[in-house]
Amino acid sequence: MCLDHPEVQALVGRIEDRRIITYGDNPQADARFVDLKTEAGASQFAVLIRDRVTGEERRIAALELPMPGKHNVSNATAAIAVAVQLGLSDEAIRKGLAGFSGVKRRFTRTGAWNGIAVFDDYGHHPVEIRAVLQAARVAANEGRVIAIVQPHRYSRLASLFDDFCVAFNDADTVIVADVYAAGEAPIEGVSRDTLVGGARAAGHRNVIALESPDRLAPMISAMAKPGDFVVFLGAGNITQWAYALPGQLETLAGGQG
């Protein structure tokens, strides 16, 4: 159980019929990640494994996960906790972690053009979006983060509207597409434009409405610079746009880049 979430931590003491192993960066966790650094898009860290009975700690150092993001490191720490229970050696854990190729549609790199990296992510909930953009911000270093978001379902946007409006703070520019209905009927007052207005009202300085998908490549070509990250976010057909964009940018440039 991840001890970094107050709700989860409150539940730990109520579970009496199961053995519990906690993880995260909480100092009280059984498996805790420490010394986190991000270099060249990879996360470097160590994990401390605490024995509840003896109080002894085992330190597994020199770990590297080939993707950025504190949330990804937290997930990796959970896997390491399981590996320790199964008796794997430190070296086996390091090797397995370093060889992890990621999960499709989780900060998946779809290509690049002229030094601009393009990523696809399934994130469509405000918590996911914040985590992905925080990871992108760290990995991009001096580059900018351009987020393209396709809200998924009118009902989700309506019920979590205030959370969505403040989910994009780590993006320098936010481009909002039409809502992907996923079979739902539209809800009055819930749309691309209301999200654009809400994010602006919440303080974001650069939020743009995407009039149609075919206008996206020219927009990115005009605004993105080498070193920038373009991150597509959503559970709808936006993944197709993410894979198409690198080629579209090259075509616009006349095959150069």
From TrEMBL:
Domain (Mur ligase C-terminal) spans 105-236
Please give the Pfam families that the UniProt record associates with this protein: Mur_ligase_C, Mur_ligase_M
> What Enzyme Commission number(s) does the record list for this chain?
6.3.2.8
Which GO molecular function, any one, fits this protein according to its record? ATP binding
Q: Which InterPro entries match?
A: Mur-like_cat_sf, Mur_ligase_C, Mur_ligase_C_dom_sf, Mur_ligase_cen, MurCDEF_pg_biosynth
Highest taxon, organism lineage: Bacteria
In terms of Gene3D superfamilies, this protein maps to: Mur ligase, C-terminal domain, Mur-like, catalytic domain
Please provide the record's keywords in A-Z order. Answer: Ligase
Signal sequence, renumbered to the chain: none
Tell me the enzyme class. ligase
Domain Mur ligase central, residue spans: 4-83
TM region positions = none
Cite the PANTHER family for this sequence: UDP-N-ACETYLMURAMATE--L-ALANINE LIGASE, UDP-N-ACETYLMURAMATE--L-ALANINE LIGASE-RELATED
- The protein, known as: UDP-N-acetylmuramate--L-alanine ligase
What species is given as this protein's source?
A: Methylobrevis pamukkalensis
